[in-house]
Amino acid sequence: MNENQHIVSAYDRDLEGVQALIVKMGGLVETAIADCSKALELRDEDLAQQVRAGDKAIDGLLEQINEETARVIALRAPTASDLRVVLSVMKMSNNLERIGDYAKNIAKRAGVLLQMTPIDGSAGAVRRMTREVELMLKDALDAYIQRDAELAAVVIQRDKEVDQMYNALFREFLTFMMEDPRNITACMHLHFIAKNIERMGDHVTALAEQVIYVSTGKLPEEDRPKADSTPYETHGDPVAGDN
Amino acid sequence: MNENQHIVSAYDRDLEGVQALIVKMGGLVETAIADCSKALELRDEDLAQQVRAGDKAIDGLLEQINEETARVIALRAPTASDLRVVLSVMKMSNNLERIGDYAKNIAKRAGVLLQMTPIDGSAGAVRRMTREVELMLKDALDAYIQRDAELAAVVIQRDKEVDQMYNALFREFLTFMMEDPRNITACMHLHFIAKNIERMGDHVTALAEQVIYVSTGKLPEEDRPKADSTPYETHGDPVAGDN
């Protein structure tokens, strides 16, 4: 093996290394999404606590990715498609960290909601919405590993459904609050939870856009579905889909 | 001038160029914050529309900064403090873009709130909170230009006040909703507005952390004030300060 080959393969290992970190981080975030939803539905304070504590590992990976990508840039001066890999890893790690934060917030609100009378049907509705985002993230990560721009495009389209689910919940919670003022505090928290899930969907969308960027060299055109085309109606939330 | 000097000064111009873009982006975001708050208080639909439309320019600058920073990395292979400048510009541009999005969302909700009975005192409270975030951003940008890590640290501390203001509003809006169910829809929107401003503060904090990183080479210790030390009380919002 000559000197040159040696350098090239160390470089490849660096690039594989940062990508392995992103996949690892994605796995932790997937688990956090599933667990915060389960904690809410089963009113399981231990699991909620576990999600809150687990966010530290996600933040730690972000830090590690920040250091690794800075090191790769400084040491290897990547260009063209290698630079795209490094830049996309940096962006995707930020999206994953935000999704992890939202899961942590949901887990905190789950702890608070434990002390209140449950709102009928809310746990199931939140679970379905969370499940959809979790599957979107799973597919986005698979698309990343496979460099599958088509699958990534499907993920982006699916965010529309999450926005619709959010809008339905927005109306439902408003109705519950109006029916009985004793529901107001619990519904406020459920509302923020639904909004957080909707935002998770936006970040999965941004992540899927990076998959397209890294696979094709181009960002998708700005035709991302946004549910804010009806900004003047007052029954659905006018800014769903906007993160 | 020899060849070498020529290269160095073109490099310096590149670094100055990306930093000028960040300062320009920061200026637009400052204006967006001030205007969305004014639109809400004066019930000025034209101004709200202007903020919504103006977000395109902010997004455009983000894109330009993304392209410029990628170009500088590919062309100049920056290391040490120059790499810190480029990386911090990338991160700060993301924070500014998010703040711009929140201003746009507030402007959208301002349009919706126009069609509802005003909630007494809410506009003034939101204005004071927005004003604080606007001043924090102004100081963070000044700290960036001056490489003033101390001023950046003061900005980070001030986010605590924004969190407190948010918590006070959270309680106030809950009370309004319980007093009269006809207030619920308007209060929900005001609530999200307050939450958006609180999140703006979190992003200004993240931006100030980058100022410290670029000025000193180190990120501040994780002692960022967060108002979530009381996760079990149900009267304030348990997750204020968490973005």
TrEMBL record, chains A, B:
- Protein's cellular compartments: Cytoplasm
- Which keywords appear in this protein's UniProt record, sorted alphabetically? Cytoplasm, Phosphate transport, Transport
Query: In which domain of life is the source organism classified?
Result: Bacteria
Outline the extent of the PhoU domain: 22-109, 126-211
**Family annotation (InterPro entries):** PhoU, PhoU-like_sf, PhoU_dom
Does Transport count among this protein's keywords? yes
**Chain residue ranges for the region called Disordered:** 219-243
Biological process terms in GO annotation: intracellular phosphate ion homeostasis; negative regulation of phosphate metabolic process; phosphate ion transport
Q: Name one GO cellular component term.
A: cytoplasm
User: What does the record give as the function of this protein?
Assistant: Plays a role in the regulation of phosphate uptake.
* Protein family (similarity comment): Belongs to the PhoU family.
The subunit field of the Swiss-Prot or TrEMBL record says: Homodimer.
What's the protein called, per UniProt?
A: Phosphate-specific transport system accessory protein PhoU
Q: Which organism is it from?
A: Donghicola mangrovi
Q: Source taxonomy lineage?
A: Bacteria, Pseudomonadati, Pseudomonadota, Alphaproteobacteria, Rhodobacterales
Q: Which gene encodes it?
A: phoU
